[in-house]
Design brief:
It is a single chain. The chain has 64 residues and is mainly α. Helices cover 55% and strands 9% of the residues. It contains two helices and two strands; from the N terminus they run ββαα. A two-stranded antiparallel sheet has the order 1-2. The longest helix has 21 residues. The chain is elongated. The protein starts with a strand and ends in a 9-residue tail after the last helix.
């Protein structure tokens, strides 16, 4: 994948670049942040509650 470095277009990056460490670090941080964002999202929990309430509506009388 081509990218721009110092104003020139290069074909590919070096596999042993120093920014590889920071790229890896930020990908881990973003993954953890995404996990907790979806875990603690109020919209997602509200949708779950609405779906579970709608699924518990059963008709009928008492048991045996």
């Amino acid at each position: 994948m081509p990218y721009v470095s110092n104003g020139s277009v290069l074909e590919k990056r070096s596999p042993w670049r120093l920014s590889l460490i920071t790229d890896f670090f930020w990908s881990i941080v973003n993954g953890i942040a995404f996990f907790f964002q979806t875990l603690l999202s109020m919209d997602a929990s509200e949708d779950y509650v609405k779906k579970s309430r709608a699924g518990n509506r059963r008709g009928g009388g008492g048991g045996g």
